[in-house]
Specification:
This is DUF3853 family protein. This protein has two domains: about 5-40, no CATH class; about 50-109, Arc Repressor Mutant, subunit A, CATH 1.10.10. The longest helix has 22 residues, at about 20-40. The protein is an alpha+beta fold. The chain contains four helices and five strands.
């Protein structure tokens, strides 16, 4: 903080008493503080990625819903899907791991 006449330059200083440089420096300091607070407050990406329907999984995989239903009924996705009545939770990361393993098996043969 600097002294200008009887005013101390800070957040309460009228803008007409600031030079453009002082104003830009104050704005830069304020933005740095708010960005730091936002980075501390923003939650990190969860370790796992989940979806709640076959349609959402089909969009992610780029296939039709009937294909995903076929994979589900054949048992390929059994350990990736938790289902309680109509409610469903699908672990997308497990699905991707499953496809990586199946592709490796095909290449080894």
């Amino acid at each position: 903080m600097e002294n200008v006449g009887t005013y101390v330059i800070g957040l309460d200083t009228p803008i007409n008493l600031l030079t453009p440089r002082q104003l830009f420096e104050m704005m830069g300091d304020w933005q740095a503080k708010t960005n730091q607070k936002q980075s501390e407050e923003t939650p990190q990406r969860p370790e796992r990625w989940y979806v709640n329907s076959i349609g959402e999984l089909a969009k992610i995989l780029g296939t039709s819903e009937s294909t995903v239903y076929r994979m589900k009924s054949s048992g390929v996705l059994d350990d990736c899907i938790s289902q309680y009545g109509r409610w469903m939770l699908i672990d997308v990361d497990k699905v991707f791991e499953k496809f990586k393993l199946s592709n490796r098996r095909r290449k080894k043969k």
